[in-house]
Structure formats: C-alpha cells, structure tokens
TrEMBL record:
Annotated Fatty acid hydroxylase domain residues: 92-208
Compartments where found: Membrane
One Pfam assignment: FA_hydroxylase
InterPro entries referenced in this protein's UniProt entry, alphabetically: Fatty_acid_hydroxylase (IPR006694), Sterol_Desaturase_Related (IPR050307)
Name the UniProt record assigns to this protein: Fatty acid hydroxylase domain-containing protein
UniProt entry keywords in alphabetical sequence: Membrane, Transmembrane, Transmembrane helix
Superkingdom of origin: Eukaryota
Organism listed in the record: Aspergillus pseudoustus
Transmembrane segments: 12-30, 42-62, 87-105, 155-176
KW Zinc-finger (keyword) present: no
Length: 225
C-alpha cells in the first residue's frame, strides 16, 4: 500500500465529502443561488476541519492500537470487498445510532453554555438551502456531524466502503433536510422554526425522549401532557 492507511482513509472520506459539496455548488451556480461561492468556501473549510479532527480521533481510538500512528484507522481496510449484507446491516445500525447520538449532542448544543458561544451561528441561516449545514461554528460541525459518524464506524468495526457510504449519504440527507423535507423522516426545518423541539434526525430519539419525559412527569406528579 503506497499511502499510510490513516492518510488513505482520511483522503477517501474528504474527497467524497468535497464531491458532494462541489455537486451542490455547481447546481447552485446553475440555478443562480445567491452566496454560493461563500458557501463553497465554508464547505471546504469544514471538510478540512473534519479531516484534521478525524486524524486526531484516529490517533486516539484507531485500530490496531499497536500499529504505527499513520497505520491506524477508524474503519476496517482490507483487500476484500465487504459482503452486501454486512454493508446494509452496518449502515442501518449506524443510522439508528446516529439518531440517538445526534439527539444528545444537539440538545447539549442548545444548553445555555454552548448555544450562544457555538450553536447559535447555525441558527442564523434562516433561508432554506443545502449549504445551511456548513453555516456553523467549526466545533459545532465537528462535534455534531463528523465525530459521531467516525466514532460509530469504529464502534461497529465497519469497512472503509461502509464509512464512505454512511458519510456521503448522511451529508446528502443533512443538506437536503436543510432545504426540503425528507419523506417519512422528521423535518429539520421544523427545528429551525421551533428551536426547542425536533432535535433528532429520524424522530425516533425524539419520540423516546418525549415518552420518557412524560413518564417522569407523571411519576413526579406533574401535569399530564
């Protein structure tokens, strides 16, 4: 292998992310979307931030732990292509777990400590646009978008192919959910209209949290909602 595994993995996911952003940038130019150049610059910066953060995360939790630093990875890299069933299972598991992790991190971003300092920048993007996802503080993008995917890939010991699929499809879903509503999936635009609700991605974590809050309110003797 000509490139160290760490650089190969980081390069693959960065190129994939950039390809998605470039595709949307070209679309924006064709339809005359305003501010597309600034948005494209922000996207490139966020990809660079995510790549640097991913390298740092890999050095901390990458495998194998006894390998030289540049040969550690978050995903599984080998010569064989993963079976379709493995890819489908890992992608489905990652999506469900991401809903839970994102819900928790997103609610933390709405706490008084983090909202004003970090997350409020994202809520300044009022106009629906695919690039609204990159109009965020770099730490916000890193902690709520990039790190959860990377950590889940490591947790599942998923193949690098799966990491690229999860990363690119997740980015596409995030960009589309900031410009339109995905059929059958909770609307993220509703969250931008009502910042105290709709913290998750699929709506599963929100539904469970609401049920838990309801049960706790009944136990504590609060009013039923």
């Amino acid at each position: 292998m000509l490139l160290p595994r760490l650089l190969l993995e980081t390069g693959a996911i960065a190129v994939t992310q950039l390809a998605v952003y470039i595709g949307f940038a070209v679309r924006g130019l064709l339809i005359g979307e305003e501010g597309i150049w600034k948005s494209a610059q922000l996207a490139a910066m966020q990809v660079a931030v995510a790549a640097a953060g991913g390298i740092g995360l890999t050095l901390l939790i990458g495998e194998p732990t006894d390998a030289p630093l540049l040969h550690r990875t978050l995903s599984r890299i080998d010569a064989s292509f993963p079976p379709p069933r493995e890819i489908l299972t890992d992608v489905a598991t990652a999506v469900i777990l991401f809903d839970v992790v994102f819900y928790i991190l997103h609610r933390l971003m709405h706490t008084r400590l983090l909202y004003g300092r970090i997350h409020s920048r994202h809520h300044l993007a009022h106009i629906p646009s695919p690039f609204a996802v990159v109009h965020a503080h770099p730490l916000d993008y890193l902690l709520t978008q990039a790190f959860p995917v990377m950590a889940l890939v490591r947790l599942l010991n998923a193949h690098a192919v799966t990491m690229v699929i999860v990363g690119s499809s997740g980015l596409l879903a995030a960009m589309y959910s900031h410009s339109g509503d995905l059929m059958g999936v909770m609307s993220h635009r509703k969250h931008h209209r009502q910042p105290t609700k709709h913290f998750g991605v699929l709506g599963l974590a929100d539904a469970v949290a609401q049920r838990v809050e309801y049960v706790l309110s009944r136990i504590m003797g609060g009013p039923a909602r």
